[in-house]
């Protein structure tokens, strides 16, 4: 009998141990998503042609036919290692990431070598040795030429060797690099023409911008590391666009006229290289002109159309020319209040508004003869879906099938799409569909790498904004083993500003896993995308213009009021945490509503918008000279006298985005008013803290809430 009882007890204990789920460690929460809890996704998934796509599996490149359930081996890592190289054989720890040059040629980079590899002949067709000091690489598949920068100047490299394009030595002149602090969708500084015969590039003159002092504290004697940082209302850098002709070797600078501090954005080439197009924006950012320039003379030939706004115009999308009519192009604009797709001709006449409605086009994938293919928020601002839209009628067909966030890779002829998607309970799934929406096969369905962990309930819902009519999307996470009869402290995680949306129907609702870590430590985590945040249309975003921190704070307070209305929330223990714009919002909430927020942790906060950079700052606030009252009201040093709760400020010592001056001036005012505040700086880090140091950061933030909330 005792043996039987022991056996039963052992079985029950074993079953309990198997069923019991794990709790997140802080390291799991901070680094897990990028390593041991990373979601498995198909690697190297690319279209080879209209009938085949490829995928890397076990260091081997396989080809799949769209109409057959079979795969063909194309190339192995061993094949690459056995291939003769100009500089001797190369070794590969894994099959390299690549892109297709044409259906028989892939391009990849290995050990400062740019390699074109022929899949049919299994040999290297081109190998270029990239200089060690080369940056901003931009390869043109049409002419097999690499553009890059070294120091201040622009170079090209091909089979004929390296050639220097620009020869500027004066301090403050930069060629071929991004400009306007990466605003307006700008991510690079070189732009190959449609045929590859010409290269457009930005030339930035920031010699007139005052050096901003940053300090490297890691050297034997701290070193001055100045950067150019034009602040709102101050002198900004000047930008021109150069056109380099590979055949003649000559450069034409576009005559973009005055004033010199306007913005030259969204560079677009016409199909035959004779014209280039710029969306030019005045410094006030309320008047955009789409201008055409002759690339042989550099002169402006015409203005196609203009857009004006009482708040701001923010061009973010270059032109996409029609493949069947070189005198027509597609353009994405928010001129009707939502990002939608339009068809124009090169005389500037609007031929058609293709998409319409109170939703946003978030990606444009291209066209076939009759339709355009897009990603959009039509179903919900928290989701992304794929659509085919008939150009003639605007009739829309949804291509994907499930709720969630979908991203498309369309075949060259747009008849097929690889649909990569995720949802709350779908870590990652990749489907092959026809453009009509028919599911042909599931290429990959990822296992849940966090299935062994115990998480509390995570839900998306809506509350009303401070205007009592606009829906705001919220996400709330409850502790595991939640008990509705208990009282829990709550932490609001906030951003609240433009260009970011925190609440999405992605895996676990787009949660930062630190939220789960705090929830398992007994906190309720809450987030609301207030007015001013992204992907909800012009009126939703632009309402913050000239008065940053006012409407967003009112909406976040509605979130706090919702929390207080719940019987299981301890209304006396509500905290707030955010970074960057979220750091600014943390200060707003702590200082403007000390009766509600007990503890705050503000990371990299904007304190005074007059000390933020020109392009972003003036878009949303105008200049300090034009909007003194707005700048005064949004300056957090003017609200220090209301500080009552526990507040910690954290800042990267080398922050080039929100410079340390913000935190220093806030701390100085706290000292002057004898207000207790905590502060921590991270040497070597810029606008946020990355790598393993982030564990230290999140431990410090967590401990602050453990100690005081």
Quick gist of this model?
With 709 residues, this protein is α+β, with helices and mostly antiparallel strands.
The strand count comes to: 45
CATH class of the largest domain: Alpha Beta
CATH superfamily of the largest domain: Alpha/Beta hydrolase fold, catalytic domain
* CATH-defined topology of the largest domain: Rossmann fold
Biggest beta-sheet profile = 8 strands, mixed
Shape: globular
Low-confidence stretches: 6-18
What number of structural domains do the residues give? 4
Roughly how many Å apart are the termini?
53 Å
By helix and strand content, what is the structural category? alpha+beta
Helix content: 10-25%
Kindly report the average pLDDT value.
Answer: 95
As a percent range, the share of strand residues is 35-45%
What's the architecture of the largest domain, going by CATH? 3-Layer(aba) Sandwich
Task: Give, in spatial order, the strands making up the sheet with the most strands.
Answer: 38-39-41-40-42-43-44-45
Helix tally? 11
Calculate Rg over CA atoms.
28 Å
Describe the structure in your own words:
A hairpin with a 5-residue loop joins strand 32 and strand 33 (about 395-400). The chain has four domains: about 45-130, Thrombin, subunit H (Beta Barrel), CATH 2.40.10; about 130-320, Methanol Dehydrogenase, Chain A, CATH 2.140.10.30; about 345-450, no CATH class; about 460-709, Rossmann fold, CATH 3.40.50.1820. Mean pLDDT is about 95; it is low at about 5-20. Helix content is about 15%, strand content about 35%. Strands 38-39-41-40-42-43-44-45 form an eight-stranded mixed β-sheet, sandwiched between helices. It is α+β, with helices and mostly antiparallel strands and about 700 residues long. Helix 6 (about 550-565) crosses helix 7. It has eleven helices and 45 strands.
């Amino acid at each position: 009998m005792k043996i039987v009882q022991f056996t039963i007890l052992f079985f029950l204990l074993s079953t309990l141990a198997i069923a019991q789920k794990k709790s997140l460690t802080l390291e799991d929460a901070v680094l897990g998503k990028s390593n041991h809890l990373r979601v498995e996704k198909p690697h190297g998934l690319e279209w080879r042609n209209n009938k085949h796509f490829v995928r890397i599996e076990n260091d081997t490149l396989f080809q799949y036919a769209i109409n057959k359930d079979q795969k063909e081996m194309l190339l192995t890592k061993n094949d690459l290692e056995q291939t003769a190289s100009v500089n001797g054989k190369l070794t590969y720890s894994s099959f390299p990431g690549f892109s297709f040059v044409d259906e028989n040629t892939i391009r990849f980079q290995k050990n400062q070598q740019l390699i074109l590899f022929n899949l049919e002949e299994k040999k290297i067709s081109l190998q270029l040795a990239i200089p060690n000091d080369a940056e901003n690489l931009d390869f043109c598949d049409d002419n097999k030429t690499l553009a890059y920068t070294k120091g201040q100047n622009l170079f090209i490299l091909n089979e004929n060797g390296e050639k220097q394009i620009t020869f500027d030595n004066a301090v403050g002149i930069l060629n071929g690099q991004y400009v306007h602090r990466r605003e307006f969708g700008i991510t690079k500084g070189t732009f190959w023409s449609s045929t590859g015969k010409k290269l457009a590039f930005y030339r930035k003159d920031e010699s007139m911008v005052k050096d901003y002092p940053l300090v490297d504290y890691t050297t034997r004697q701290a070193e001055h590391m100045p950067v150019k940082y034009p602040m709102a209302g101050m002198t900004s850098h000047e930008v021109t666009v150069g056109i380099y002709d590979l055949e003649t070797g000559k450069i034409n600078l576009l005559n973009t006229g005055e004033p010199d501090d306007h913005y030259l954005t969204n560079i677009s080439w016409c199909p035959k290289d004779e014209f280039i197009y710029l969306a030019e924006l005045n410094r006030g950012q309320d008047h955009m002109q789409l201008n055409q320039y002759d690339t042989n003379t550099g002169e402006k030939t015409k203005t196609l159309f203009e857009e004006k706004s009482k708040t701001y115009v923010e061009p973010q999308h270059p032109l996409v020319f029609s493949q069947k009519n070189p005198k027509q192009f597609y353009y994405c604009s928010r001129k009707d209040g939502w990002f939608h797709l339009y068809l124009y001709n090169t005389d500037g006449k609007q031929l058609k508004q293709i998409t319409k409605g109170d939703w946003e086009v978030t990606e444009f994938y291209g066209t076939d003869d009759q339709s355009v293919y897009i990603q959009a928020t039509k179903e919900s601002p928290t989701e992304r879906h794929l659509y085919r839209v008939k150009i003639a009628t605007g009739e829309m067909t949804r291509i994907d099938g499930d709720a969630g966030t979908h991203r498309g890779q369309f075949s060259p002829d747009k008849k097929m799409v690889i649909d990569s998607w995720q949802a709350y309970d779908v870590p990652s799934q990749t489907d092959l569909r026809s453009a009509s929406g028919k599911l042909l096969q599931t290429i990959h369905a990822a296992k849940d790498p966090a299935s062994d962990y115990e998480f509390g309930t995570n839900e998306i819902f809506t509350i009303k904004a401070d205007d009592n009519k606009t829906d705001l999307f919220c996400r709330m996470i409850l502790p595991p083993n939640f008990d509705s009869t208990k009282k829990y402290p709550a932490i609001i995680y906030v951003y609240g500003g433009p260009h970011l949306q925190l609440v999405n129907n992605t895996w676990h609702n787009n949660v930062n896993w630190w939220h789960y870590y705090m929830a398992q430590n007994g906190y309720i985590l809450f987030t609301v995308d207030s007015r001013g945040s992204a992907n909800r249309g012009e009126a939703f975003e632009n309402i913050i213009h000239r008065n940053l921190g006012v409407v967003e704070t009112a909406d976040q307070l509605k979130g706090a009021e919702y929390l207080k209305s719940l019987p299981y929330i301890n209304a006396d223990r509500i905290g707030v945490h955010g970074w960057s714009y979220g750091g600014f919002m943390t200060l707003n909430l702590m200082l403007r509503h000390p009766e509600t927020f007990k503890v705050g942790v503000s990371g990299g906060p904007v304190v005074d918008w007059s000390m933020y950079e020109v392009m972003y700052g003036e878009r949303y606030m105008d200049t300090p000279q034009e909007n003194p009252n707005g700048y005064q009201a949004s300056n957090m040093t003017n609200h220090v006298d209301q500080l009552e709760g526990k507040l910690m400020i954290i800042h990267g010592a080398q922050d080039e985005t929100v410079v340390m001056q913000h935190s220093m001036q806030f701390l100085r005012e706290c000292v002057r008013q004898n207000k207790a505040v905590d502060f921590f700086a991270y040497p070597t880090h810029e606008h946020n803290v990355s790598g393993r140091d982030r564990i230290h950061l999140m431990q410090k933030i967590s401990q602050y809430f453990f100690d005081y909330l």
